[in-house]
Amino acid sequence: MTDVDQDYSAQATVTEAEFDAVMARYRSASEAAIAGLDGHPDLAFDPLSDERLDVWGIAPGELRPVVIAVHGGYWRMLSRHDTAFMARTLADAGIATVVPDYTLSPAASLEEIVRQVRAAVAWVHRHGTEHGLDPDRIHVVGSSAGGHLTAMTAVGGWQHAAGLPENVVKGAMTISGLFDLRPLVDTFANAWLNLDTPRAEALSPLLAPPGTAPLHVAVAEHEAAGFHRQSTEFHAHWPAERSWTLVPGRNHFDVFLDLADPRSALGEALLRLVRP
């Protein structure tokens, strides 16, 4: 493995057994969290791809603030069914959760994946009131590849073309994300991303016009060096209100699960972001 591969190999920071156990926890914790929650599962949000999302934690007669939770998986694995483990914690705080799918790489280009996640934001803004969601209180959170995609909804420059207000995202939390994709051109990940340098530049939130929403950047303590470095750079780059958490004792994969615990540093930070 080359040095640059090592920098961006999240899976190399855990054993195979640890990785498999966390992947299983994503699904089991999500299933437990949504059991009995009011919601609207399996809604089509993007006619160009026919991808779907689930809405959880709504309440009759309310328009609740929204957290759109974007899954990771290096843009090539996992789904919305693995990503609802925070839904009950948020519902208990009066917050709804939206978990979208996106077409996985290499079946979709990274440009298309970004478009789909932005389309989920647009769907909540345009159709949220029909499903108990407040279109003026949209927040986005994501881990790993989902951290990159979250950042791509928070940066400026895309909203006008989508017919959305510039401040459509009211807050964003990235967890162990990637924000400058140029190094990935020379890594193992390009086997499925198929990026060249100009496309990597265009898809890098660190190189995009920053947005105006409050940003919380988090990174796990036991993390590959590239994720640490890029999280630090993205936090420093953001001109609007920003905050930071280094999550002790966590690795690239289990850190995301902390959002299910309202007493964890990440759980508390997300609640503060949505309900300051």
UniProtKB/TrEMBL annotation:
Domain of life: Bacteria
Gene3D superfamilies noted in UniProt: alpha/beta hydrolase
Keywords, in A-Z order: Hydrolase
InterPro entries: AB_hydrolase_fold (IPR029058), BD-FAE-like_dom (IPR049492), GDXG_lipolytic_enzyme (IPR050300)
Entry-linked Pfam families: BD-FAE (PF20434)
Domain BD-FAE-like: 64-160
Record-given protein name: Alpha/beta hydrolase
Originating organism: Amycolatopsis silviterrae
